[in-house]
Write a structure and sequence with these properties.
Blueprint lengths: L2 H14 L5 H18 L1 H10 L1 H14 L16 H27 L2 H12 L9 H20 L7 H9 L1 H7 L11 H23 L1
Helix pairs in contact: 1-5, 1-6, 1-10, 2-3, 2-5, 3-5, 3-7, 4-5, 6-7, 7-9
């Protein structure tokens, strides 16, 4: 699959997770998580473990901030609501599915291919004065940092490190060459793009009906 097509499907899945029904969301969650565990188990599990407190925080916020029926057999002062736990679980599934989708994206395409695809996607921003090449370098640095976290459990997520990445963009531009590959679109890629357009049209049509 062409990396540009992969990027488009990645964004489509992220958007779809916010609008599909709970049943389809559950199916997506199981399917994407299973694929990520089969293809890149170590990287996916490490990222899930590192985000465990975020998952728990989301669940607790929804559990105690959403009005509804309190969970039985717990004091009313401390009991979360059933509706809150349900909504919190849905948000955790969305975040986990997004993480699994990102894992699959990084697995199916190399860094250079992803940068080339994102460069193609952002190229119209050139007409607005955006430095797309500089953006590509930022993406290279960020993806390297993501892999660093996923592969080495002793490396913790650090916002200071992200600031260092931002400050080192110019240095990185001078020290490394980023080759933007002009990959051809095959028949299968064009068919997948057509399928994506049909899926988007179907989603819009269903939403208009409701």
């Amino acid at each position: 699959m062409h990396p540009f097509v992969s990027i488009l499907y990645f964004f489509f899945v992220l958007i779809a997770m916010g609008v599909v029904s709970e049943v389809l969301l559950s199916v997506l969650f199981v399917l994407l998580s299973t694929l990520a565990l089969v293809i890149r188990p170590k990287q996916f599990l490490v990222m899930v473990i590192r985000l465990k407190w975020i998952f728990l925080s989301i669940l607790m916020i929804y559990a105690y901030a959403t009005p509804g029926e309190f969970v039985s057999y717990l004091p009313a002062t401390f009991a979360p609501t059933i509706e809150g736990l349900y909504q919190g679980a849905l948000q955790v599934m969305r975040l986990s599915s997004a993480l699994a989708t990102m894992t699959l994206l990084l697995m199916t395409s190399s860094k250079v291919q992803l940068i080339s695809a994102l460069y193609m996607l952002c190229r119209p921003l050139k007409y607005l004065g955006c430095n797309v090449e500089r953006l590509a370098v930022r993406l290279v640095l960020t993806l390297e940092y993501v892999d660093e976290i996923a592969l080495h459990q002793r490396h913790a997520i650090s916002f200071d490190r992200l600031d260092e990445l931002n400050a080192g963009v110019i240095t990185h531009q001078k020290s490394k060459m980023v080759n933007i590959e002009d990959l051809p679109f095959h028949t299968a890629d064009k068919m997948l793009l057509l399928l994506l357009m049909l899926l988007i049209a179907t989603f819009i049509f269903i939403k208009l009906l409701h």
